[in-house]
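Example A, followed by Example B.
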Amino acid sequence: MQMLMPEPQIFVEKTLALIKPDVVAKEEEIEDLILRSGFMIVQKRKLQLSPEQCSIFYADQYGKMFFPNLAAYMSSGPSVAMVLARHQAVSYWKELLGPSNSIKARMTHPHSLRAIYGTDDLRNGLHGSLSISSAEREIRFMFPEVISEPIPAGQRARDYLNLHVNPTLLAGLTALCKEKPADPMTWLADWLIEHNPNKPRLQHHVTEEHQE
């Protein structure tokens, strides 16, 4: 009987979270809510944005009437930028934030972060990326030293698994069947760590010390 295997998927996604200047004092409290909501904080930094940097970050809002006030607000004090990771991080973080207008959020989503920490439409307490592509751009902006590669999806994800994951996993499962250990899960985990193809290879060079 042929078993149908599910399509391989990559679940981890990243998004940018920004604690805005007027609620930075609530940083620890907000971080605790983030962690209890199933996110992992991958990167974090506190920074002071200049009006020019705010204009670049919010370039898609340029030309709107509120834009000067937005740039002034975001550069009025330090902010906390975080890279959050979890399954469907972008959509889950947007859901946790609630509507962008904090007044509306208090009426329709009273338990959302913007309802709790925001003041109005402009001073809404926190920022979240709108899409995976905007998350990649915003993470590069806030963390330029971090190499952030696009998350594989669809055929790219299947190609990645077939090329980099499945061969090692198949070899490990084959070795497991031959060995038949008492604790197969632990044995396979140890085997995969030992045979990780991405494990760095250390080369020891013998150097001679020259005395002058």
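Example B, a separate protein, is given below in the same form.
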Amino acid sequence: DETEFRNFIVWLEDQKIRHYKIEDRGNLRNIHSEDWPKSFEKYMKDVNCPFKIQERQETVDWLLGLAVRLEYGDNADKYKDSTPDGAKNADNAAKNAEPLINLDVNNPDFKAGVMALANLLQIQRHDDYLVMLKAIRILVQERLTQDAIAKASQSKEGLPVALEKHILGFDTGDAVINEAAQILRLLHIEELRELQTKINEAIVAVQAIIADPKTDHRLGKVGR
């Protein structure tokens, strides 16, 4: 818009550039005059703008750059330590992405939250709330992720078992009872195997919580 463009030029000169003395800005301020383009062209020459009057986009960009340089020169101490908004937003985004960086483990709200989670997930209490938090993380990763839930929801199809190939070890004198005893023994063995698997998982989880970071079992040594 022509009127807005002229007002913009006058505002830049009045507020930021101030190349003319106040009494010499009359022709530039008279934005409704037919001679305003000539006054503007003269102004561009006076401020040493390298662009022509027809190159408005380039002229506006150059004048804004001039205004910024002059504004900074007048207030160098104020602006020299300023941080761009983009950098501030990036720093804030980084902090928000890592909410545990500044976590206060002694905060009562933190302790209460960990304790509530531990009770909800039926995790053994520990004096160190960070240890409980790690245990919660392990449980969530192994049992409550989408993949873990989907895997646990899958129905297990058993394989047919030939009872005659499994020796009972004793004889009740009744073929039907013998067969029932064989079935119970096989079910008991399956339960023992499942229990052993859970024990192994618990051992691994405990080791992950209390392991010394300097210990590397792959190297066959402890410490550095």
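On Example B: Residues 88 and 209 are 36 Å apart (CA to CA).
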